[in-house]
């Protein structure tokens, strides 16, 4: 696995950029610039809170004095208090990305779990019905499932709900791979959640592998994101659209990453299977392995439902085409979709392999 650089610490606030200020920050041992929450909100909160205390104190004093003497002093303080309340409310509400204007998932039918998937490992840690599946990890085993057929391209999505609390070291994933067919030299398209500690945000890691590096090593192309919502509170839809020319990752139909085919050497073209799994990746998953899976918090649970699969089966008709990514049916993102994707990357991208000076850019020529 690729060794990831130290990640910035984020306050656990599920709010949008309107209430958080981002600045480029040079991390230790790295010249990468990453968005880091400034202490703007904390400073403002303390400032407003101090005035709230003053306001209450004056209110007590003024209760024994004529209001004429108090109103000129209390009005501005009360105004600050109201602004603090409104700011706190905006944080609670959060702010999502602008509308992409089109939802690719609406053109893909929902399939039942047992129509498409079978258990791969850890059957005793898997509970499935027609529409959904729950898998879990404890100190004895994790679990995984795999599609019945391999695909050459297509749209692959699922709604997922993650476990809250301490999940460091645990990976919950939905991905495509041909590792069983090409061990050590395989292709992969990853949607995986890196477990976290209670005071930190979940990280969504998207990744693309192409035939390893030819010497048995795996060259990852990671882009990592935080989300504009809490993924432990409800189900959200995560998907990857794989076409002959590009791979696009979606969260609730908002495109967050586009990986284009610039050469055959940098794009996966061999058939892949669809997988889901939960497993212990303590050596690297959370803060570069600093925090390990702690089985005092077991079981670690991942829930999946609303499977959206529309793909071209390997060996199928040559005329098969994956679903369109945009309403224009041109095969490319619309301007509105690009604007939504750019917003996400400006505000929630926390790692980009192309911007990492530690990476050997001779191995990632697409950058």
Features:
367 residues; cell wall; disordered N terminus; Beta-glucanase/XTH; 8-stranded antiparallel sheet; xyloglucan:xyloglucosyl transferase activity; alpha+beta; glycosidase; 2 domains; Xyloglucan endotransglucosylase/hydrolase
Can you describe what's shown?
The chain is of the alpha+beta class and 367 residues long. It has two domains: 54 residues; 252 residues, Jelly Rolls (Sandwich), CATH 2.60.120. It is 19% helix and 31% strand. The strands form three sheets. Strands 3, 5, 6, 8, 13, 14, 15 and 17 form an eight-stranded antiparallel beta sheet that branches. The protein has an eight-stranded antiparallel beta sheet with strand order 4-7-16-9-10-11-12-18. Helix 1 runs antiparallel to helix 2. The longest helix has 27 residues. Its EC number is 2.4.1.207. It comes from Gossypium harknessii. One of its GO terms (molecular function) is xyloglucan:xyloglucosyl transferase activity.
Number of strands: 18
Radius of gyration: 24 Å
Rounded average pLDDT: 81
The figure for the number of domains is 2
One letter per element, helices H and strands E, the order comes to EEHHEHEEEEEEEEEEEEEEHE
CATH-level-2 architecture of the largest domain: Sandwich
Explain briefly what this protein structure is:
The protein has 367 residues and is of the alpha+beta class. The protein contains four helices and 18 strands. It folds into two domains: 54 residues; 252 residues, Jelly Rolls, CATH 2.60.120.200.
């Amino acid at each position: 696995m690729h060794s990831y650089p130290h990640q910035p610490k984020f306050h656990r606030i599920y709010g949008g950029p309107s209430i958080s200020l981002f600045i480029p920050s040079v991390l230790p041992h790295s010249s990468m610039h990453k968005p880091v929450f400034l202490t703007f909100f904390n400073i403002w909160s303390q400032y407003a809170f101090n005035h709230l205390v003053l306001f209450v104190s004056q209110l007590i004093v003024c209760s024994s004095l004529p209001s004429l003497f108090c109103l000129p002093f209390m009005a501005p303080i009360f105004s600050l208090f109201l602004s603090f309340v409104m700011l706190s409310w905006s944080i609670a509400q959060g702010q999502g990305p602008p509308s992409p204007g089109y939802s690719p998932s609406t053109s893909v039918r929902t399939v039942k779990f047992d129509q498409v998937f079978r258990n791969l490992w850890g059957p005793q840690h898997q509970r499935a019905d027609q529409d959904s599946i729950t898998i879990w990890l404890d100190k004895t085993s994790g679990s995984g499932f795999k599609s019945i057929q391999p695909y050459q391209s297509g749209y692959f999505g699922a709604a997922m709900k993650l476990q809250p609390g301490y999940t460091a070291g645990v990976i919950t994933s939905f991905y495509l791979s041909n590792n069983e067919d090409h061990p050590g030299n395989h292709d992969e398209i990853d949607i995986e959640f890196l477990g976290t500690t209670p005071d930190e945000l979940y990280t969504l890691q998207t990744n693309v592998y192409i035939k390893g590096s030819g010497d048995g090593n795996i060259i990852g192309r990671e882009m990592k994101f935080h989300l504009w919502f809490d993924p432990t509170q409800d189900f959200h839809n995560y998907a990857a659209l794989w076409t002959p020319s590009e791979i696009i990752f979606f969260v609730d139909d908002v495109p967050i990453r586009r990986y284009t085919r610039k050469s055959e050497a940098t794009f996966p073209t061999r058939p892949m299977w669809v997988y889901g799994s939960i497993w212990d990746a303590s050596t690297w998953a959370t803060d570069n392995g600093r925090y390990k899976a702690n089985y005092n918090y077991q079981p670690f649970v991942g829930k999946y439902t609303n499977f959206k699969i529309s793909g071209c089966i390997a060996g199928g008709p040559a005329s098969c085409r994956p679903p369109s990514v945009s309403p224009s049916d041109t095969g490319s993102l619309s301007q509105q979709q690009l604007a939504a994707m750019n917003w996400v990357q400006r505000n929630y991208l926390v790692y980009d392999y192309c911007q990492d000076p530690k990476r050997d850019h001779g191995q990632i020529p697409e950058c």
